[in-house]
Amino acid sequence: NAGVTQTPKFQVLKTGQSMTLQCAQDMNHEYMSWYRQDPGMGLRLIHYSVGAGITDQGEVPNGYNVSRSTTEDFPLRLLSAAPSQTSVYFCASSYSTGAEFFGPGTRLTVL
Amino acid sequence: AQSVTQLGSHVSVSEGALVLLRCNYSSSVPPYLFWYVQYPNQGLQLLLKYTSAATLVKGINGFEAEFKKSETSFHLTKPSAHMSDAAEYFCAVSADTGRRALTFGSGTRLQVQP
Question: In whole angstroms, what is the distance from residue B47 CA to residue B44 CA?
């Protein structure tokens, strides 16, 4: 099993650009989620999904969209990048609750 | 509502000494509780989790944590620190309907002195 994979590993955007962070898991997990990690703030939940076709907002959803068309994939879209979205983004998946398996992260810088 | 407080953003111990990382939570419903470890430039790895079974939970790498409802605590311990334990540790709580979302503490960086 590859576990949870994320692409790209690094990305630099200009303010106003859009992009999609990819996340995939091969463990047939129903629960998937996106977190952002900022220094001194731990991880904060952006969006999550409890199965294909079902998504919901987390603590900091503004400026991000998600969709879940398959069990395996859970992409995160930045609609119009802002410097405040500079962060490290982690995707996670779990069989039943919370987040048990994390991807390696995407380090995003918005200029 | 749910929240997590990790006491001490930095903890330093000597190799072979007891490791104690503190976590207190608040929750309006019975919580699920988690500890994660993060090494530099890596994702998080689940160390252990409490899901309302045994209050003493054993995890990987010799770590364990005890759920104390009366103290609303879930402290992480390891009897003897190893140099490889140096990392950042995060406590998290899940207490929303359906246990779908985690709230993380701000993390504790563990330093192990030779």
Answer: 9
The one-digit pLDDT tens for each residue of chain A (111 residues) are 779 999 999 999 999 999 999 999 999 999 999 999 998 778 999 999 989 999 999 989 999 999 999 999 999 999 999 999 999 999 999 887 667 899 999 999 999
Q: Which of chain B's residues have a Cβ under 8 Å away from the Cβ of A40?
A: 9, 106-107
pLDDT single digits (tens) B5-64: 999 999 999 999 999 999 999 987 788 899 999 998 888 999 999 987 788 999 999 999
Amino acid at the residue B37: V
What residues of chain B lie within 8 A of the CB of A58, using their CB?
Answer: 101
Answer whether B100 sits within 8 Å of A42, measured CB to CB.
no
**Nearest residue to A101 via CA among A47, A23, A42:** A23
User: Are the beta carbons of B87 and B36 closer than 8 angstroms?
Assistant: no
Q: Per the CB < 8 Å rule, is A101 touching B46? A: yes
Chains A, B: CB pairs < 8 Å? 63
In angstroms, how far is the first alpha carbon of chain B from the final one? 41
Residue A95 CB coordination number (10 Å)? 12
Contacts of A42 in chain B (CB under 8 A): 4, 90, 104-107
